[in-house]
Amino acid sequence: MRARFVHSAFVIAFVLAFGARALTGQQPPAPSTQAPRPNPGANGTVGGVGPPPAGPAGPAPRRADGTIMLGGATIDDKGVWLPQTGGFATMVDAKAELPFQDWARAVLADREKNQLEPHTRCKPSGGARQFLTPYGVEFVDLPEAKRVYIFDIGGPHTYRTIYLDRRTHPATLTPQYYGDSVGWWEGDTLVVDTIGFNESFWIDRRGTPTTDRLHTVERFTRTDSRTIKYELTVDDPGAYTKPFNAGFNLAWEAGTELFEYVCQQGNEAPTLMLGEQKSVDRRSLIVP
After folding, report:
1. Surface-to-core class of residue 228, CB atoms within 10 Å of its CB (0-12 exposed, 13-18 middle, 19+ buried)
2. What pLDDT digit, counting tens, does each position of 147-179 carry?
């Protein structure tokens, strides 16, 4: 009799608790079928998956001939590169006054209100924007092929080719998101010269404007096992009155590999889609 009473009381309590949850619009949590997302901020990065490595960084890995390596020391040493201070928006200090032409300054002001960035629509991004993502990039250096590839993980999931077997650009170029990149080594620094950009990307997440006259020089210096110093010179006489410099550090996130990324899946960032607007004119067949 007592056991039956206790059982009945338990059932009633459960029903009342469930009913109260239903009345408040809450549902019992469903079992998760997804892998846990990276922990933002860990490891000093946006996509970090664990605590910072213990102890000081080691020397940058090198090949048998002494040349620097942009990836792991061995084929089993996996990792990607992320912006060291997180996925910040701009390649320069946000308060820095760049040498804008008047029209370019006006374009930036509009973009800061209406963040209709092509990257959120799965378009590749040239210049510094390629490295300002919460998922990172992977460098694949193939000395025998005279090529360095930079693979994006998030966003458009594309790759960029740097040609090490020539120092000049073709006389005729079709403008592209990544442009045409030629590179060479200066000691431990990979120097990359790029022209042939189109105007369909933002060079950083802030929306700093560029034109098809953009010419960049990038310097990638691996200073230790965990750091690449990234330096950028921007020369675009179509948008600026003179060249300017930018840069930041990339941090090595050990243990992370390229993974499948479907760019438009669950893309629910309304401020990146609409900005200050209330709706989008869908009469155009071209995605903005």
Report:
1. buried
2. 999 999 887 888 999 999 999 999 999 999 999
> And the tokens for 38?
């990276």
pTM: 0.77
Torsion over CA of 58, 62, 64 and 66, rounded to 10 degrees?
-110
**DSSP assignments along 234-245, one per residue:** EE-TTTBSS-EE
Count, residues in the chain: 288
What does the DSSP 8-state code read for residue 44?
A: G
The pLDDT value recorded for residue 26 is 36
How far is it, in rounded angstroms, from Cα 58 to Cα 63?
15
Token pair for residue 187? 């000691």
Measured distance CA(234)–CA(243) in Å, rounded: 6
Q: How far apart are CA 51 and CA 232, in angstroms?
A: 30
Q: What is the pLDDT of residues 115-147, one digit of tens each?
A: 888 888 889 999 999 999 888 999 999 999 999
Q: Which one has a higher pLDDT value, 93 or 168? A: 168
The pLDDT assigned to 178 comes to 97
Query: Across 3-124, where does the E strand assignment appear?
Result: 79-83
Task: Give me the residue label for tokens 């390229």.
Answer: 258
- Helical segments of 58-215, H only: 102-113
For residue 251, give the DSSP letter.
E
- Could you tell me the two tokens for 45? 């990065």
Residue position matching structure tokens 């001939």: 65
**Cβ atoms of residues 160 and 139 within 8 Å:** no
Q: What is the pLDDT of residues 42-66, one digit of tens each?
A: 333 334 334 566 678 999 999 999 9
Instruction: Give the phi and the psi of residue 122 in degrees, each rounded to 5.
Output: 70, 30
Q: Is 107 helix (H, G, I), strand (E, B) or coil?
A: helix
Contact 115, 272 (CB under 8 A): yes
Question: For residues 26 and 18, what is the distance between their CA atoms, to the nearest angstrom?
Answer: 9
Helix, strand or coil, per DSSP, at residue 119: helix
